[in-house]
Design goal:
Elements (H helix, E strand, L loop, with lengths): L9 H13 L2 H8 L3 H15 L4 E3 L4 E3 L1 H28 L4 E7 L7 H12 L3 E7 L2 H9 L5 E4 L8 E16 L12 H4 L3 E4 L2 H18 L4 E5 L3 H9 L5 E4 L10 E5 L7 E9 L5 H14 L2
Parallel strand pairs: 3-4, 3-5, 7-8
Antiparallel strand pairs: 1-2, 5-11, 6-9, 6-10, 6-11
Helix pairs in contact: 1-2, 1-4, 2-3, 5-10
InterPro entries: LysR_HTH_N, LysR_subst-bd, WH-like_DNA-bd_sf, WH_DNA-bd_sf
GO molecular function: DNA binding; DNA-binding transcription factor activity
Protein name: LysR family transcriptional regulator
Length: 302
Amino acid sequence: MRLKSNAVNLNYLLSIAVLAEERHFVRAAARLGISQSALTQQVQRIERELGLTLFSRTQRQVVITEAGKAFVEEARRVLTQYDIAIDAARRASKGEIGKLRLGFVENAALHLLPRTVSRFRRHHPHVRLELNELISAQLVQALQEETLDAALMRPIAGLDALKTMTLLREPYQVALPADHPLAQKTAIAFADIVTDGMIIAPAKKSTYLLSVFRPLCERHNVEFTIAQEVEQLHAIIGLVGAGLGYTLLPRSAAALSIEGVVYRPLADPEAPQAELVLAWSANATNPVLNNFLAVARDASRQ
């Protein structure tokens, strides 16, 4: 049955539910903080709207009818659902529930990503995380198109329109075959290794690496000699172990221990460092993002 008007609101439903519990107009009105006459008017108005009698009144008691029992049962469900809706809205506004779409570059998965995500899930267990691995250029585009909320990425060109926070700076290391003549050294000069065959990701994925080493190449008036191009980091290191060449990796990649591969720091003081930043749109409105930024900042300090 549809009501004839929108006169019945949640306060009226609450009044009916309380009266059903108290079975007494004076006590019910006191609980509700309204006058007895106001409560009586509310009940009468609902009954008129429904065309039903919800309560039988006598001088001594109020008896709820079968129609009233059915109405009160559903009214309580509506009131409970309303409370749930309010709680959900408040929690969502604080970023305690919802969804975070997080992009990341491959290298971030070795250290910063799992550390940050693990901490975030402990503090915000009811937020759903959607993770997406892309290269930095694709992450920039996804942030601009707002298909991602945040991204762990390299600081490449195109970040001017985005907000960023640097989470990690780490030196590059040389990964080379264990039987390479330079493997016996504790540190390797860039000039000694650069003319060897290098195993690297395709250009679209290695843009950042090539750009940060450009000044060092110009200083020594050399160019990288590319021996192989492969997509995956594990494959790159595997080919190093097979003796097909060397590669340059951030220090954290040394966690990928593969037989036949050794890691040595670069001896050059001016050698670049690899940076990982957290980037997000300046127009972001997702409350979950603020909580993630705080967690990421703390995780990066460990």
